Amino acid sequence: MINEELLKRVLESKEERANFQRQLINKYQLPLISLTLNLVGGYFLYDKWEVLFEQALESIDDVFKKNIVSKETRIGKWGPEGFWIINLPIESIKKETIEIEDSHSLGRLFDIDVIGIDGNSISRRHLGIQPRRCIICDNSAIECYVEKNHELEELKARVDEIILEGLMLDGK
């Protein structure tokens, strides 16, 4: 059963983040990168969330350092968030963020959205790229999420494993 208070908090967080994204896009009239973390159950359940967030921030900063117009980070209602205004075509930005998500040792836990000046995000599908796979099985992540194919405990254990493995690979 879905916890109504938790659902309310998640929805409020998404709305608050979307409003902030619109403000940044309207101010700069350039595409935006929006970073959150894929931490099942909430960031507060994970001891290493700050290190994970720093790794994500550094990865994005490194790739886009010459094209960053503005950068902001904050702790939103549902966890850490990063926002970059990037002076590049939206398709180029999305290709690079997909590379970060797919190649970084912790990238599976990075949720990097790219939003155009029209307010619409660009997806992997827009670029002819397969959607992300589930961290437990080989189904699409969205399919498992919608169908609730895995228990919270199983997902959290896998996230903990990804963090541990990723930090060991990065020497953190």
Please identify the top-level CATH class: Alpha Beta
State the helicity in percent bands.
40-55%
Overall number of strands: 5
Percentage beta strand: 15-25%
- Spatial sequence of strands, sheet with the most strands: 2-3-1-4-5
CATH architecture classification name: 2-Layer Sandwich
Instruction: Extract low-pLDDT stretches.
Output: none
**Helix count from the secondary structure assignment:** 5
The arrangement of helices and strands along the chain is: HEHEEHEEHH
Determine the oligomeric state from the structure.
Answer: single chain
* Terminal Cα span: 37 Å
Structural descriptors:
single chain, 172 residues, alpha+beta
Describe the 3D structure.
This protein has 172 residues and is α+β, with helices and mostly antiparallel strands. The chain has one domain (4-129): Alpha-Beta Plaits (2-Layer Sandwich), CATH 3.30.70. It is 47% helix and 18% strand. The chain has five helices and five strands; from the N terminus they run H-E-H-E-E-H-E-E-H-H. The chain has helices at 4-28, 49-64, 90-103, 141-147, 152-170; strands at 32-37, 68-76, 79-86, 110-115, 121-122. Strands 2-3-1-4-5 form a five-stranded antiparallel beta sheet, with helices on both faces. A hairpin with a 2-residue loop joins strand 2 (68-76) and strand 3 (79-86). The radius of gyration is 16 Å and the shape is globular. The mean pLDDT is 92.
Quick structural gist:
The protein has 172 residues and is of the alpha+beta class. Helices cover 47% and strands 18% of the residues. A hairpin with a 5-residue loop joins β4 (110-115) and β5.
